[in-house]
Design brief:
Blueprint: E1 4-7, H1 17-25, E2 32-37, H2 49-58, E3 63-68, H3 76-82, E4 86-90, H4 97-106, E5 110-115, E6 133-137, H5 152-165, E7 171-175, H6 183-189, E8 193-196, H7 198-201, H8 206-215
Parallel strand pairs: 1-8, 2-3, 3-4, 4-5, 5-6, 6-7, 7-8
Helix pairs in contact: 2-3
Length: 218
């Protein structure tokens, strides 16, 4: 399959949110990535349900929601009601990961697990076949604009080998410092989905940047 591009709305001009979403609607973006942060699990606070509902109202793209929060199980139904098409929960924030994934899938959306940079791939080896996606964080979660962690390539390759060995259909998503300098290598390493925030929204022509990431032209 061709790799997918998920712009991260956290880096958008939130004062012109409707316009930013309209731009994404006419771009080659495949979905909109939404970071939900509670100020506890990560040292930052982002969006609540009303913002997700607003994005859903204007978006023609699916909503991919990354829950950087404690006790994500308490809010799964609410985020799905707000418009989530996929929900990603952190391995590090969940003591009942299998039940959480099972619940998300029963609620009718795609389910994924997120691994922080310090969390090894083998932590999810027993549930890999149950996951629609694994998100590898290539920066520490909580803030945009951080520098890509170079040893992440090796981690992506390790995850890809695990997926193949278990004959799973799990997709690999990558988030953090993604740009046209590293996109080709990320896809070659095994990434199926590239999340990019600042690199897209701080560009003078975000639509062209999305196209370059999609086509991997440099």
């Amino acid at each position: 399959m061709q790799h997918l591009i998920y712009p991260s709305i956290l880096s958008a001009d939130l004062g012109n949110l409707k316009s930013e979403i309209g731009m994404l609607n006419v771009s080659e973006a495949d979905a909109i990535h939404i970071d939900i942060m509670d100020g506890v699990f990560v040292p930052n606070i982002s969006f609540g349900f009303p913002i997700v509902e607003t994005i859903k109202k204007y978006s023609e793209k699916p909503l991919d929601i990354h829950l950087m929060i404690t006790n994500p199980n308490l809010y799964l139904e609410k985020f799905i009601a707000a418009g989530a098409n996929s929900l990603l929960v952190h391995y590090e924030s969940n003591n009942s990961l299998y039940r959480t994934i099972e619940k998300i899938k029963k609620l009718g959306v795609k389910a994924g697990v997120v691994l922080n940079p310090h969390s090894p791939v083998n932590l999810i080896k027993d549930i890999i076949a149950d996951l629609d996606v694994v998100l590898i964080m290539t920066v520490d979660p909580g803030y945009g604009g951080q520098e890509f962690i170079n040893w992440s390539y090796r981690k992506i390759e390790e995850l890809k080998n695990l997926i193949i060995s278990r004959q799973a259909n799990t997709l690999i998503q990558v988030d953090g410092g993604v740009n046209t300098n590293n996109a080709k290598r990320l896809v070659k390493s095994g990434a199926d989905i590239l999340v990019a925030g600042n690199f897209i929204f701080q560009a003078s022509d975000p639509i062209t940047v999305i196209s370059k990431l999609k086509l991997l032209k440099t």
